[in-house]
Amino acid sequence: MIFNGCIDMEQSAYNNLKRSWASLPSQTKSYCDEVGDVAGGSYAILEGCIQMENQASGNTSVFEY
After folding, report:
1. Is residue 65 part of a domain?
2. For residue 25, what are the CA distances in angstroms to 1, 49, 58?
3. pLDDT per residue over 2-56, tens digit each?
4. Structural domain boundaries enclosing 26
5. Is residue 32 in a domain?
């Protein structure tokens, strides 16, 4: 049951990434690809990294004096 859940999660992440990969910034793809590789080649980790990078790019912190 756990194995099937992992496979389903990886397949879902792969399917989502397959649709959006070409439109992602190359810097995000490169960075998150490295993160995914360090985590053992997980599409779920890769997808999570891309989501966090996209959120961070739209929410830039500003230093206030």
Report:
1. no
2. 36, 13, 13
3. 999 999 999 999 999 999 999 999 999 999 999 988 888 999 999 999 999 998 8
4. 2-57
5. yes
